[in-house]
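Design job #97: recover the sequence.
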């Protein structure tokens, strides 16, 4: 493929790489935080945090080099010193697009979309996820297996959050905020302690993975 790379292709796929790096997801989540209920906003933040955590820990666990690190003949457009597996852009793209698609189209409060509009939204979800991953292959920074793994992990994470965690997280946060509104007794010390322990475990697991893997 590299024999047929054009300047226009590099420009387009580098732009897709920038798109897949996260800015649109952070913008979308910022909108959620400011204009939607806090329970749903926290759900989005929890998802974003989980994706970042999983991406970091899997890259360190596999410590697989990028293709240009092992083959100097590969022309690379855009460079990074991070490990290559899974592709973070593919992971973020598939996770982010499917997560938003499921949250908009597949909840009890979702509006009734026409078949045509639903098909368009599904097409955009799949095609944008695919294009971001293909862009990473085109510019020479990932192998196909790294991209496919990123797609798979992202889709799994999006569906897992939607099916297993969405309602639980939103109800928990809404219940907590309702307790504060009614001045009910809340054990802040207990909550802070539990959250601090969880944060320390997650942070420590990344450090441990780096040294052990």
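Job complete. Output follows.
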């Amino acid at each position: 493929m590299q024999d047929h790379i054009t300047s226009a292709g590099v420009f387009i796929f580098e732009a897709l790489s920038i798109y897949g790096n996260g800015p649109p997801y952070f913008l979308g989540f910022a909108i959620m935080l400011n204009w939607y209920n806090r329970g749903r906003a926290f759900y989005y933040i929890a998802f974003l945090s989980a994706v970042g955590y999983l991406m970091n820990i899997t890259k360190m666990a596999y410590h697989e080099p990028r293709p240009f690190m092992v083959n100097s003949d590969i022309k690379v457009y855009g460079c990074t010193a991070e490990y290559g597996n899974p592709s973070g852009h593919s992971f973020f793209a598939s996770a982010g697009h499917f997560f938003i698609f499921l949250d908009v189209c597949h909840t009890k409060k979702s509006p009734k979309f026409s078949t045509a509009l639903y098909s368009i939204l599904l097409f955009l979800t799949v095609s944008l996820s695919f294009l971001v991953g293909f862009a990473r292959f085109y510019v020479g920074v990932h192998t196909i297996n790294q991209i496919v793994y990123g797609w798979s992990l992202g889709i799994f994470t999006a569906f897992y959050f939607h099916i297993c965690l969405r309602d639980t997280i939103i109800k928990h946060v809404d219940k907590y905020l309702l307790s504060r509104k009614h001045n009910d007794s809340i054990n802040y010390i207990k909550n802070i302690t539990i959250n601090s322990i969880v944060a320390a475990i997650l942070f420590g697991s990344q450090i441990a993975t780096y040294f052990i893997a």
